[in-house]
Specification:
Blueprint: H1 9-18, H2 33-37, H3 40-43, H4 53-76, H5 78-89, H6 93-121, H7 123-140, H8 147-161, H9 165-176, H10 181-231, H11 239-243, H12 257-261, H13 264-293, H14 298-301, H15 303-326, H16 328-347, H17 352-381, H18 386-415, H19 419-439, H20 443-448
Length: 449
């Protein structure tokens, strides 16, 4: 389907208005009416036959899954490297955790710029560049001799390099899918969760055979190879796909990034995702060390990440499909309850078997809630500046993810226990749900609240 230049003025305006949410993400300006309605990157897309669109959609989704999985694997494995590096160098867990915290913080700052570039220029080039940069950084971590080396290779290079994979994956899938958007988002972002299933045991296996330096080299090389090849397939949808989409709830025009910045719902959702990020990364980074403190061997302790990853993968796909049927708010409410219950069980210091079950439930709750959060963004703000707005919101998630592990590490160093940070986590989750409810409300409801 294309815009019919010969259509009656009223009909032509209707079609163009349906695309008005897809304009210049930064200023909403263009060269004439048509460029105001459609992102510049869409004009550069070639045509796609309608019969091949379903196959094209799922090929893009599969490629983005590979990118997300490859980029998330070194992050997921960090909890295994943490006690290994502490034992090898004698560094504190808090000091080592700063490397990951720095990566997440810088990645959050970079995510906004990466999202805006993808809105303007398309996702392929910037995704390829950032993924390759991250892979080189994680590979260079194998040469670490001093603590600051870890901060540069993982914190700076890994952080800036992984700044775009989540944002670009979310925005690109949202533009390709409408009817099955929740399911498609879940399948793509499940790459993040599957990495927790595999990265822990793989990291242990590599460390036992190649040492931690060889393990870093393998993870970095994998990201460079697989992530870069998959990124070459990624593209924005053609105009014909965008023309068939219904107008998002945010209005036919959608919001520019400046309009979103002036909307308090953005900041409520920013705080919500910050709290969610702080809790999940704190748990995933320190749960192996938590198990080790109880006398569990490293290989056995790493299964805590696997249990979390299995639950998160199931939750991501299952709750993603439910979000299309029940709505994102209902899914978020149930997922927060799952996370709170699971963390209470962890605080009771259960046997290892029950701990694994609790972590699987926690993973289900986190990933389901995360999918619900991403699912609601285009409903609240529209598609016009989706990449930039998602990138800005990702800064909140990554800021929380940066603070959570570092604070928990330093509290453990000071007290010898994870009781305080793990005990505050359920409170943070309840508060995050309240923020989500307010932030995802309609504009009229938010103004009257």
């Amino acid at each position: 389907m294309v815009v019919d230049e010969r259509a009656a003025p009223g009909e032509k305006a209707r079609v163009l208005d349906a695309l008005d949410g897809l304009a210049d993400p930064l200023r909403g300006r263009g060269h004439g009416r048509r460029s105001h309605c459609i992102p510049p990157c869409v004009y550069r897309q070639g045509s796609v036959r309608s019969s091949s669109l379903p196959r094209q959609r799922w090929l893009i989704a599969a490629s983005l899954f590979a990118v997300v999985f490859s980029a998330a694997s070194p992050i997921a494995a960090f909890g295994v490297f943490l006690p290994t590096l502490a034992e090898h160098f004698g560094w504190s867990r808090g000091a080592i955790s700063v490397a990951l915290s720095l990566a997440l913080l810088l990645g959050g700052i970079g995510a906004f710029a990466v999202g805006a570039i993808a809105d303007r220029r398309g996702p392929r080039g910037i995704l390829l560049l950032t993924v390759a940069f991250a892979g080189v950084g994680f590979a260079l971590a194998s040469t670490t001799r001093e603590l600051w080396h870890l901060y540069v290779f993982i914190g700076v290079m890994g952080g800036l390099g992984t700044s775009g994979f989540y944002v670009i994956a979310s925005a690109t899938v949202t533009r390709w899918f409408e009817e099955q958007r929740g399911l498609a988002l879940a399948l793509v972002l499940a790459g993040f969760n599957v990495s927790f299933v595999t990265a822990g045991p793989v990291a242990v296996w590599l460390i036992e055979r190649l040492g931690w330096r060889g393990a870093f080299l393998v993870f970095g090389g994998w990201l460079c190879l697989v992530g870069s090849l998959a990124a070459l397939v990624v593209r924005d949808p053609p105009l014909s796909v965008l023309l068939t989409m219904r107008t998002p709830r945010a209005g036919t025009r959608g919001m520019s990034i400046l309009g979103a910045l002036a909307d308090r719902r953005l900041w409520l959702l920013e705080l919500c995702w910050l709290l969610l990020g702080s809790v999940v990364l704190m748990v995933s980074v320190h749960i192996v060390s938590y198990s080790r403190d109880r006398g569990t061997a490293l290989a056995t302790a790493s299964f805590a990440l696997t249990a979390y990853g299995i639950g998160a993968t199931i939750g991501r796909i299952g709750f993603g499909a439910l979000a299309d049927r029940l709505g994102a708010r209902s899914v978020m409410r149930f997922c927060i309850v799952l996370e709170v219950v699971a963390l209470i069980v962890v605080l009771l210091e259960p046997p290892q078997e029950l701990l694994l079950v609790a972590l699987a439930v926690f993973g289900m709750g986190f990933s389901g809630g995360d999918t619900a959060f991403v699912r609601i963004i285009p409903d609240v703000f529209g598609l016009k500046a989706l990449g930039a707005i998602t990138g800005l919101l990702a800064l909140g998630w990554r800021s929380g993810a940066a603070l959570g592990p570092a604070v928990a590490g330093f509290v453990h160093d000071a007290t010898g226990s994870y009781a305080v940070p793990f005990g505050l986590a359920p409170v943070a989750l309840v508060l995050s749900y309240a923020l989500f409810t307010w932030g995802s409300a309609s504009r009229q409801s938010a103004s009257s609240a």
